[in-house]
Batch of 3 targets.
Target 1
Amino acid sequence: MIRYLAASVGTALAGYSVFIERTALALTRLDLAFTRLPRSFDGFTILQIADLHIAHWSGVEKRMEEIVRGLDFDLLALTGDNAVSSKGARLLRAFLERANPNRETYAVYGNTEHKGRAGRRRREDLDWPGLRVLVNEHVLIERDGDRIVLAGVDDPFTRHDDLAGALAGAPLGAFKVLLAHAPSTAGDALQAGVDLVLSGHTHGGQIRFPIVGALYSHLRKHKRLVQGLFEGPQLARILGEDPGGMRVFVSRGVGISNLPARFLCPPEIALLTLRCPD
């Protein structure tokens, strides 16, 4: 009897993970105050979409578009593992043309864009007007005469990142936002004076358990940067030094890899609002 009950519970949980939670996309809203943020950027919003892994357009992708179309944001950032096929890239382009018309979207590559011959094709698939892929480089975002730096590194997990190159020539003392697919670059970002790191890659662990948390982070460095916002003492313990005012946000992402399931780790997109202290 107990064996049958356990089997039934296991089947129910598996079904929930595959068919319900995997598509239960949520919007995470964060207000982040920074002392170095120029006053004119108070209220500036960044919509981060991580780990889309788009191959087709179905439940979770349709839900994402519903959410995004109801939002007002200043900048849209894709933080890697954007599409897993040429068809997926075409679907992504069509989505961005609908959801972010007449504005540039910024992106970085993830490890999916560096998987052998297919990785090269994935990078080529992301070459179109309106999508600016930051490959170890930065741009300046201007607002009312003030500027902030938006930098992007190539994928840290596959060791294609060059943070020094990404920030070369950036205005000294400028507020800096870094797009990095994997959060393992956080320690280097702190040394480089970055204020906010936006990452993904981990999928939040994808499968999590109470108390234990994620069983696998898919990180080589700073393995506790699995999901959510990290700052202050918590971030100091992970990096081994005082992070000052730097924050790291690691998105659970939209898509999946390896296992077609999520458990206690629903997909998310994030709307981050930058604030000046009161």
Target 2
Amino acid sequence: MARKHILIGSGAAGLAALREIRSVTHDDEIRMVTMETTLPYSPTALPYLLSGKIDEETLWVVDEEFFRQMGAELVRGRRVVGIPWDRKEVVLDDGSRENFDTVLIATGSEPLLPDLAGFDTVSVLGFHTLDDYHRLVPLLGPSAEVILYGGGLVSMGLAANLAKRGVGVKVVVRSRILRRYFDPESSDLIAQVFTAHGVDIVTGSEVVEASPAGGRIELSLGDGRTVRGDVLVNCLGTIPRISFLDGSGISATAEGILVDRHMRTSRENVYAAGDVAVGRNFFSGETGTNAILPSAVEQGRVAGANMAGRVRESPGWISMNTFHFFGASACTVGLVNGSKDVDWVSTSTNTAYTKLGLKDRCLVGVQFVNVPVDPGIFQYLIRRRVDVGTRIEELLANPAETSRAIMIKKERG
């Protein structure tokens, strides 16, 4: 008997679930509901619109033909405002209702608004959607200076592409850039590249107040310094987009929706994946979110398989981040900092850095700056817990070729 699946969100997790459901059954009805008025796109590509590396015509990750081939309907420009689970319905913002047999919540995240003095007196932009891009572009005149508040991957990707566009950029961050993703040595190397390309990185103090200043915006820091610019973009962080869950009985925390290894929520036939899903960490088994594209795809596939009637489990998420900037590159896979039972070894030059974390002769974390590697291979070695104990020196000296050789041997073995 055919069933009906509602997919809320058109990002990587939702699309992966759609493909997975269709790989199991061609009979079920599938409707994808998105707040966007456009075809699906990846928010990670938005900064490249600013530098001209891509244009809007090449932004879309799938086209109308994709949905025709999938036998699925894309419902654009509609927000979900409630999920009355007892009636097995999804309520949309136009008052319409959609019944379901299963539903996937893959609504992603939205910017975390800073709770600081004066931020209600100035114009603060976000940079998370295509609409945000369209709001920002008209403000980027030839002499414009943009302040980016926060030093994460969104902020630094935006900084690199604004600088390529010829816009003045100031990044304001309390401690150091990319702190959650890279250790201090990596951060320093990355910061040097940004500084060499004219990006002003302001560190060492908290922002305490924002205020208008003669037609511009001024941030006051705790140590008495001030930072002025024409445009302020909030890149402080994100929160899950789940306010519509009120009254649904679906268990959630401030981090997101609690899911099991099947990506099931606390309500039967309701699943979650991507930025909103609080799943299990591969290493510790503890719960948390991992807002990166590979995790969203993997979780979407698991959710889609189970929604279609197959039994599939997530092995747990592993952090993996890649970053390209001004012709340089950096990536991390697995653990980044700390952990008393991990042995770290590293090698570096003035411009390149390799760091490997090992536990019981197996990799648990790697970092590279300006070292060409395939992050997917290192994720494979970590997830499969491949013994690399005898090849550490080779991995340090030539990580790309050595990691590939180890993976091939494992596969053949």
Target 3
Amino acid sequence: MKLKFNMNIISNSPYLPMVQQFIRNKKLSIPTAAVVLILLLLLVFSSGGGESIPTSEARKGPFLVSIKSSGEIRAANSFTMTTPRLTWGQMQIVYLIPEGTIVKKGDVVIRFASTTIDKTIQDKESELNILKSELTKFRADREVRLAELDGNLKNTELSFEQAKLQVEKMKFEAEVQRKETEINLQRGKIAYEQAQRKIESQKVVEQSEERKQVLKIKQVEADLTRAKADKEEYTLKATMDGLTVYEMNWQTGRKISVGDSPWPGMPLVSLPDLAKMQSVTQINEVDISKVSKLQTVKVKLDAFPEREFKGTVQAVGTIGQQNDRTATLKTFEVVIDIEGTDPVLKPGMTTSNEIIMATLADTLFIPLESVFEKDGKTIVYRMSGSSARPVEVKIGTKNTNFVVITEGLEPGDKVTLRDPTIQQDERTGGQKQSSGTKL
């Protein structure tokens, strides 16, 4: 038997220092030292210095025809709170409930600085009080003016009546006197009619002025009501129960925080409803035709791989998208409803999803790594004792990790997980040469 020794194995052996010390202590001769060294080499090779091939066993049982993909947790229902669209100047955040707080409907989530609108409300209230005072004074003055005009009207009416009586008395007097009384009568009539027209005109003027003042008061009242209603929007309250999640502020490149001045309509805080969660994943265009609504899904959290949740495909995207410019394949969004509720499920957590298209009963399958294509044939390397022999097989359907074997193997057969004919590069761990291709 010819052994090929590797000096790196010898120099890195944990037994080498002990052997060297033993040789020095015993002052062994060169031939004896050589014998000891040979024993060291045998020890190295017998303790695992040789190469072993990893294997797997052909198993028979239920086989899942499935697709695996990564995804992200989100709430099925969510409400996003945005900056109010108001006209009272720049909004500034002065209070934010801590992110991750579970809130109830009506809880205060965000407050904005209200200095500007508070001053507006104060100014409008002062203006309204002044206008109401002016209206009260105007109405009082109007009563005085109309009373004076009414008195003047009555006086002219009396003068007019006296002129009428005087004309009756002057029927039998001289012509000159009679003419004089008739002229006085006409003057009294004209004065009376003028007094009537003046009081009517004054009433119209007074009513017009009152309407103007009342209208102005109503306008200020409307402004005040709107300002007070807008001030309510300076405090944003939760419209539903949920978990507070801060949105990104693209002006600062970080999540929103106290002191930010967001633009109108800008998303600030999302309130996902934790009662119903989903996993959103992307499936490439090669596999998307295999995915359909209502298919069963196994959902696992990357942070808690021991936890598994049952899911159902709720929606399959119809428009492909390219994740980046270098990607050659487009992907389609698939939304998975997660059954039940669990406090561990949080929006943004990454998931590993296995979408199950079918379950084949009593099926023989092996790992994908064990199947190779050589010379137009599909083969595996089956272990026979301590050696691996190529065996031609026929394969069926496959999933992410395993492939069905329809002919060529029996349950319990051990197959290699790599091609044993390919030498492993001892320096890099890679392959030096391959005579076939992996499936």
